[in-house]
Request: fold
Amino acid sequence: MREGGVYATYSRLSHFDEDDRGYSIDIQPDRSEEFARSEKASEIRVYSDPGRSGKNSKRPGLQRLIRDVKAGRIDVVVFHRVDRIFRNLKSLTHSVGA
Reply:
């Protein structure tokens, strides 16, 4: 990982995940921000989609994050688990490669 720079955190909690306290909408950004601070992030931007399913990318917070990454405003993206961004690896790799 690169030290410093602008870090973005992304969190999502679908209606189906709400009973899983280990991945609450509060815990996800806290842990991601803690990591970014440990990496000496110069700035931390927070993106989230509470109550949104991960079955597609039509989520406002995720779309803002993608736009900011493509515009070069974000150096590092941090998320609690891969399935917070996309439910499957194929969708993630398609998005990253796009």
In short: The chain has three helices and three strands.
